[in-house]
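Hey team,

Filing this mostly as a record. A colleague (T.K.) asked me to run one chain through the structure pipeline before their review meeting, and I want the input and output archived in the tracker in case anyone asks later how it was produced. No errors, nothing strange. Just documentation.

Input sequence:
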Amino acid sequence: MTAHDLPAGRHFALTWGIATPYGGMTTALLERSRMFAEAGTPVDVLTLDPRPAPLGPEFDDLATIGVRVRNLYDWARSGDIPPSPNARPAPPALRAGEDGTITDEVDGVVVRRVRLGDDGRPRDIDHLRADGSIALSERRPAGGGRLLVACDAAGSPVRSWRRRYDLYSDWLDSLVGGAEAFVIVDSKTVAPFAADYRRPHVTVVHVIHGSHRGSTPGSVRASRQPVFSRLDDFDAVAFATEAQRRDVRALVGPRPFLTTVAHPVSPLPASALPAEADRTAAAVIARLEPIKRVDDALDAVMQVHHDPGPSIRLDVYGTGSRADELAERAAGDPAIRFHGHTDDPASALAAASVLLLTSRSEAFGLVLVEAMAAGCLPIAYDIAYGPADLIRDGENGWLVPDGDVDALAEAIRAAARLSPERRAALRAQARATAAEYSAERIRRRWASVLRTAQRRRRLHRRTQPLVREARRAARAVLRRVRAVVRRARKLARRAR
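Output structure:
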């Protein structure tokens, strides 16, 4: 074993769920898991979503190399939960159509019965096996709290929990056993649980995929605050860029182990790239949501189309809540085309001359490196953290002032005016930048980070008893001091 090898042990990637189609965070998680597996380290991807989406054939391919997706509720359905003598009785089953109870199906199979509360959110849930038997019941008792009861196929209770976190912990414990293990947590939804999951042989690393910046300088956005208040509970916290790591360190101080690990990208071979004369279009690959500001890209391209000269086609790939609105906005421009989700972004980027990225915020901007790997030149708003870290303006792409549609349009014009020789030079620089994020380099970086986090965890385990003893001694001294002060005050009152 060398220092570049991933450390020995079980390796897990923990997230809430895998949406279809999945976005940048899930792409990064799966590519990292693939990279580990191809280096001989299998990875179990663990999901907690009670309604997991059907997984496509690409997951069968991942399974063949050692990346397996496992869901918490499949554990409940399996009958492998170890029984407990203190299991609470199973509650009465929910009946579809009664008391506001509805059924939830996946691929035509009923997986849950759900009773909605007055707020329209799930209140009571029965998780079902394929034969209709109840695998796990969740109830909110009248007195408050939560009760979860796992049942065998005959309906007898085998184990119960008062919190979902306890159920999650038991599942992880069953997977880890007593082996050395590494859990990389990608989802901010799951991170608060992972911060609580402390085992002497398990190293827990949280990967921050999004920007943490709040609406005011130096603040943390509300969705990140529960985790940012306890970053030291992780053995390591990884960011995709040094700039974000540096900013977070300024906020939380030096104690947490904050580090950087970028996302891997595989460059396309030169033989797979089209001829320069065929790369005339611009592309957008993004969720069609407000945070991506795709309307700015549309407006910039339409502005360019008002100029004399050849028209620049814009191909938009993605789905989201603004899809209809954006299509209507560009309806009068036949050179703007919407393609929906693409399962092959590399080919879409290889066919384009430039990529437009107009997000309000990024933590890395994986699509920027994917574009560079395909020789597609990025034109991006100058935002933290991805574009400013990846793009050298005028050398491997263009940075334009944040929110400046006129500047975005001018950058598109500048790219179109380049000579073939200059454009080829920029594409070569872009591909050289992408090569810095090869799987081999990123895997070596992960090996270093996981080993450092493992050492930190072991040191913490050795020093924690000393810390606890020091705290007990300090409390004892404080109690004695307080007792002396009380006696002194009594004597002073008697003297008066």
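Quick notes for T.K.: The mean pLDDT is 91. Residues 365 and 413 are 23 Å apart (CA to CA).
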